[in-house]
Amino acid sequence: MVFRLHNRQTGRTLLEVASSFSSDPNDPDETPGYWENIARSSSVFWNPTSTLVAVDEYPVHSSGRVYLLANRHRRPVKIDIPERKILTATGRHWGKARLRVQREAGQSGWLSATKLALTLTVSSPATDPHPRTYGDPDYEAVLEVHDGHATVVSVRVGNR
pLDDT tens digits for 6-28? Predict the structure, then answer.
């Protein structure tokens, strides 16, 4: 399965990004179309200038990823999110983590044309002496996106 960035005027596919979800056509227990429906449930967040887009895959059992795409000089590119730096900045030892686009930040995650707010959620640290429990606050991260790459601006405990 892939996410496709299309030019609406020409109908041409500009960029394809493989989804982290995949179906197994040989699995007899898999409901036909299940993963396709999950992929269609993903959220798409354009920045105010329509030069950057964040695709937040629908979370299934804490899985899924956030993909960041840019339209640079009329050429679309995938931008890596520095997830490891975000996790390290929390000071905790994560076994599994899930980044999500922060929806409270102006309803789109975009704080400006180049700043994207993310939330680190749903997982308990693997070897943390003070593991997270239900109701613990999430972490918030802000990325600055320029020239085809993302830089971590801040990581802090969220307000929840």
Answer: 677 788 777 777 776 666 666 66
> Among the residues of 41-155, which ranges form H helices?
83-89
Sign of CA dihedral 138, 144, 150, 151: negative
76-85 — which CB contacts under 8 Å span 24+ positions? Answer: 76/5, 76/14, 76/15, 77/15, 77/148, 78/15, 78/17, 79/52, 79/145, 79/148, 79/149, 79/150, 80/149, 80/150, 81/118, 81/143, 81/150, 82/143, 82/150, 82/151, 82/152, 85/152
Sign of the dihedral defined by the CA atoms of residues 44, 70, 99, 38, in that order: positive
Distance CA 17, CA 88 (A): 26
* Distance set, CA 159 to CA 40, 58, 72, 131 (Å): 30, 23, 34, 18
Give the Cα separation of 141 and 108 in Å (integer): 14
pTM: 0.77
